[in-house]
Amino acid sequence: MATETQIDDRRTNGETVLELDGLVKTFGAFAAIDDVSMTVERGEFRSIIGPNGAGKTTLFNLISGALPVTDGTVYFDGEEITKLSPPERVARGIGRSFQISNVFGGLSVRENVRLAAQADRRDGYNLVESFFKPTGRYGDINQETDRILERIDLDHVADEEADALAYGDRRRLEIGVVLATDPELVLFDEPTAGMSVEETQETIELIEEVLVDQTLLLIEHDIELVMELSDRITVLNQGEILAEGTPAQISGNQSVQDAYLGGMVE
Ligand SMILES: Nc1ncnc2c1ncn2[C@@H]1O[C@H](COP(=O)(O)OP(=O)(O)OP(=O)(O)O)[C@@H](O)[C@H]1O
């Protein structure tokens, strides 16, 4: 269960950072997302849960711009972004999840963080271009890199190759690379897929801790962890929002219990 302390760690201030208004996404005659409206506060840790096929990944694709909406509006930071391309949304501060590893194994830990910090998010985080960028910001970037290395607790292995890192340190580096791109909102679509229970717990806790100033949207199947760490939870079912609220409200919601949790959470 989420404790007050865990919720208070995050700096939400009641300001809306993301607003979805009447979103619809159809594939042929099938509505994968069917009139979804929701708001997310700046700094919030929001989890999206629901059975397989509920529309969770589709919803993320509409937020990131990977898929065009059939109907409805997406607002970010108070501005409409419904028609913006994915790179334009990255430029606004919507970070991509790291389902596919974002780390270059042959480069050092420091080089990985530095590259991400150097890749101006206004370019849509283009790593290749960032290699060849004019380097007037080097002073800033070096400081920023050091700050992030300390934050993810990898300063002692900064010069080791990413490929040589232990499993947990590799996860830290991946999260550090996300942080280095300075996103405002980060979408994590099952970042722990394929991990053991312990690895899952460590990874989600680390995301929560390192990205404490960011707004997080997480799709995650480990319900206990979701209940423990989220500020709020949105439950999707058949493309619609079935319920939304704090972990306590969601675990106490009878229709969520019936449709999804099925007694998984008391
Ligand atoms: N490109 C597509 N074309 C047709 N149908 C699609 C497409 N993408 C998703 N769907 C359908 O939309 C529904 C929602 O899929 P989505 O992947 O968003 O669900 P999900 O909640 O993320 O599921 P899971 O937990 O299994 O990842 C599913 O029935 C899926 O088959």
Automatic annotation (TrEMBL):
GO MF entries: ATP binding; ATP hydrolysis activity
Database matches in CDD domains: ABC_Mj1267_LivG_branched (cd03219)
Keywords: Amino-acid transport, ATP-binding, Nucleotide-binding, Transport
Residue ranges of domain ABC transporter in the record: 18-263
Gene Ontology CC: plasma membrane
One family name in Pfam for this protein: ABC_tran
InterPro entries assigned to the protein according to its UniProt record, in alphabetical order: AAA+_ATPase, ABC_AA/LPS_Transport, ABC_transporter-like_ATP-bd, ABC_transporter-like_CS, BCA_ABC_TP_C, P-loop_NTPase
GO annotation (BP), single: amino acid transport
Gene3D superfamilies the record matches: P-loop containing nucleotide triphosphate hydrolases (3.40.50.300)
Family membership: Belongs to the ABC transporter superfamily.
Function field: Probable component of a branched-chain amino-acid transport system.
Name of the protein in its database record: Probable branched-chain amino acid transport ATP-binding protein LivG
